[in-house]
Amino acid sequence: MTSFSTGRSLPLPPGRFGLPLIGESISYLQEPARFIGQRQKQHGAVFKTHLFGRPTIVLIGADATRFLFTNESQRFEMTNTTSFETLLGANSIGVKTGTAHQKLRKHLFKSFEPRALADYAKTMEQLTHRYLHKWEKMKTFTWYPELKKYTLDIACRLFIGVDNAANENLEKVYEAWSNGLLSIPIRFPLSKFARAVRAREQLLVQFDQLIVQRQKQPIAHRDVLGILLQAQDEEGNRLSIEDVKDNVLAMLVAGHETLTSALTSFCLLLAQHPQVWQTARLEQAKIGHAQLLTPECLKQMTYLELVLKEVLRMLPPVVRSGSRKVLKESEFAGYRIPQGWDVFYQIQETHQDENVYAQSQQFDPQRFAPESTQHRQKVGSYIPFGGGIRECLGKEFARLEMKLFAVLLIRDYEWEILPGQNLERLVLPFSRPRDGLKVKFWRREG
Fold this sequence. Notes:
Blueprint: E1 2-3, H1 25-30, H2 32-43, E2 46-51, E3 54-60, H3 62-70, E4 76-78, H4 82-88, H5 98-109, H6 114-138, E5 140-142, H7 143-160, H8 169-178, H9 192-216, H10 224-230, H11 241-254, H12 257-272, H13 274-287, H14 295-298, H15 302-314, E6 324-326, E7 330-332, E8 335-337, E9 342-346, H16 347-350, H17 395-412, E10 413-417, E11 425-426, E12 432-433, E13 438-443
């Protein structure tokens, strides 16, 4: 399957480069899912294209993801657009590569250790109740933007200690910054990118003020910012202030945008599959409502775990990986992967592989049950959090927030999808229904 003693006799993957300079970028941006689907049908699980000024190879399937994960840093290295790199910052985990990435990752992981997650759960529960009561009063609303406020509030409270962020100026500044991550890096005063650069500067000023407070009271705050300011590696080294600021910013986008997508998908899929909803609710009735929702308590909810896993398989928040630059020419599946090209893998299509997931378009949590043969799927076939050395650092944080939200929601509330809306998926930058999921919402009787 894979070889590294490549020769020029090997063919390039099938595909085309499109127009001069722009390649196939416009077609891709207009309808990413259709673009990938058509080329996968025509060429198979490996094909070439030309996106954003770069010759690119697209990989689909478990074999392809394993190939990339096992050769990360030796033969492939993360690469980012100018906009993404500028707005995240040079010290961000999303930008670092090689040894620097691994050292930084060890520091940041301290924010997501079991002890920290147990502390976070209490705050998550409080804020979830606050939003559920708010939605009960609203009765009808569009859920995606509401969930963006909810996840931003949780992220800001737990990461930087700021409460009620969604109702403050911080939300507007954050939105201006995040909207520029995939923008064209042109610094005209009114361009999306220029506004994002200014917003980044404003956010960093706020972080500086918060850091001064933490340095005066280092023990008083058990949020991510406080943990990172005190964290040391085995040799006693601490993160620089610039490291901390850039990575808190990276965590905000990772712990906010993707969770908004995942929770919206959960609400949508449960409403569309009432039998799954009922089974999840019966599990809650058996467990009872008296226990505190600690991580240990949540582990008892095995059916809900299957549901959430299937939600992330069916509708992963991020449908493709970030691009990697090919450092050394390689071979995969009989094709040459030239040095200097870009390569990325598709998450959505890998999750729809019929050789792994029978009836992959069907929402079926039982496919992940211990007795199911699909439970023992091929390594690399289930990748909602990516994989390898760049697997999502906060995946246990995300799973905790998803599960806690789901428990409190299905125990006490009902909702239905309002008619006359477009639920077609938009997938860039994060997966979501086109009309945002308009619902009617109310508290259960009894």
